[in-house]
Sequence to fold (308 residues):
Amino acid sequence: MTNSSSYPIGSPGQPWGASEVAQWRARQVKSRSYAAGVLPAIDALRERFDVREYGLLDYAEGRYPLLAIHSRGWRDDLPVLLVTGGVHGYETSGVEGALQFVRDHAGDYAGRANLLVAPCISPWAYERIQRWNPDAIDPNRNFREDSPAAESAALVALLAPLVDRILVHIDLHETTDSDESEFRPAVAARDGKDYEPGEIPDGFYLVDDSFNRQPEFQEAIIEAVAKVTHIAPADEHGEIIGSPVVADGVIEYDVKKLGLCAGITNARYVTTTEVYPDSPRATPQQCNDAQVAAVRAAFDYALAYPDD
Fold:
């Protein structure tokens, strides 16, 4: 274990208060623009898809419209296929992969399903290449109606009418070297706990729902992604990030209990992707392509076996 005093904010054993959160927030530097990097890519899709503003984040650093892309000609008799990206703003291929999928492949599902894509759930964090929102809250532990994270609450409200109609939900993430160098030490310091170093897996993996296991579905995604990038092996303990590997490149979480984005609906098929962008064996475009391959494989499998 490493004492939380190794993080530059807070005191060992003491959870952060408002002062420490303010110190942390003051350290966050805007490195890219949501308005320039994401909104134009969404605007370019408006000729073929409907775009809905489902929330507006009003922070001291700016106002951020939250946008979702919908199939045009939405039909209530068709299943709903859901993609979410950018829950953690620093996980770039989640955002870019979601947009690339809509641009290049969403038309393949016209007349077969309704598509709903929320490509950048945390735009403040996207700009600062950060995991948390400005209140030092991780949106991906807070997807519930009374969420303290405005990003999470907005998505919960958007999806509330559809929770029982969504067939598949794929949530696009990354596991990065900065998880170990910054974000895990930060959460330990924030919560007044000791930091326990971990191991970053080299490769792509998935997180299944331990209370709604769909092994064949996960296998189909892994098979498709393996054609694009390498799959993360288990470590010497048979684990990936501390969880037992249940199949090639697959671990499990109780997604609803943990308040994860993947648990926000009652979809039959659920998965969370984890791309490793810091691998010397993967390029940024390869990471985006891996996300797209995962989305396509997830949707194709779910539509082939909607009642399994």
